[in-house]
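Training component of the fellowship. As part of building independent skills, the fellow (R.M.) carried out the full modelling exercise for a liganded target. The chosen ligand was nicotinamide-adenine-dinucleotide. The inputs are recorded below so that the supervisory panel can assess the work.
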Amino acid sequence: MTGGAGFLGSHLCTELLDRGAEVVCLDSFLTGTPANVAHLMDRRTFRLVRCDVTDFVHVPGPVDLVLHFASPASPVDYLQLPIETLKVGSIGTSHALGLAKEKGARFVLASTSEVYGDPQVHPQTEDYWGHVNPVGPRGVYDEAKRFGEAITTAYRSTHGVDTGIVRIFNTYGPRMRPHDGRAIPTFIRQALAGEPVTVAGDGTQTRSVCYVDDLVRGILALAAHGHSGPMNIGNPTELTVRQIAEDVVAATGSRAGLTFIERPVDDPEVRRPDTSLAARELGWSPEVPWAEGLDRTVSWFRQVSSVSA
Ligand code: NAD
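Fellow's submitted model of the complex:
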């Protein structure tokens, strides 16, 4: 598991261990932290290795599955780390693919709904090619992931590696960083601090947000299935950013309300996965409703802020 000490990676490591797998987590801690997997350190079947996957990827012994999740993922991170983002999506992905080829393992690439850019097709189906500005500020992330998809496909066709590509839509849950710049953790942090929640633009742009447990179930179903993808995994319930902010304010009991700030450059207008492929092939659909996922996430943020206070 590359990027296993990050938000999604740490949940995937936990679930894989719970299902009886042996997990080697490779992470440089660029945007993740060992604290995310501290609860796994006393498990005999878990190993954490500090490693920048753009340097090399090596795991001794047999490997059945390579999950390649290493990459800065939040806009704050990839705007600060543009070269690292492009390198991990290109050189890092080719190293992780090399490991899968050497071991005869299945390989799953964490791609993203950002490959659709500011989409002109709604909802987004996997056969839509996207609308990405390669030289815009977000291009470093979107194009790194598009390259990652291309090289993954080339390893499948050229070397016969058993590959899968998952296009992950916005996911939220415990272990997101309060300052990572993504909307939900930012809103929760602000609301719990009694500050007004900052909505970009007029908040009419939409997002479809998936609770992390649903996403993990979908990814592991794809890993077990053998489908090549690309396959959308996300929650198709579409909410305006303003609605998300209002729900966070209500869930936290904040009295500070909302405030409106400038929209970031190339911020997508709409985002909603068409998940019929995942439903048909994997029998997968999200189960955790937004209100419940939000309550669980707010409880976790309350708990960590009370520990660090
Ligand atoms: P995250 O930043 O919490 O985790 C990424 C992890 O990768 C971190 O632990 C980081 O230290 C590690 N990493 C980065 N560069 C590395 C390198 N060169 N070598 C080794 N480790 C490195 O982000 P996340 O939200 O958990 O995202 C994980 C993956 O899922 C990313 O590939 C991201 O693009 C993808 N994704 C996430 C979302 C989402 O909503 N969270 C949506 C779409 C795609």
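The panel noted the following from the submitted structure. The pocket of nicotinamide-adenine-dinucleotide is lined by residues 2-3, 5-9, 26-32, 52-54, 69-73, 88, 92, 110, 112, 168, 170-171 (CB under 6 Å). Residues 81 and 158 are 31 Å apart (CA to CA).
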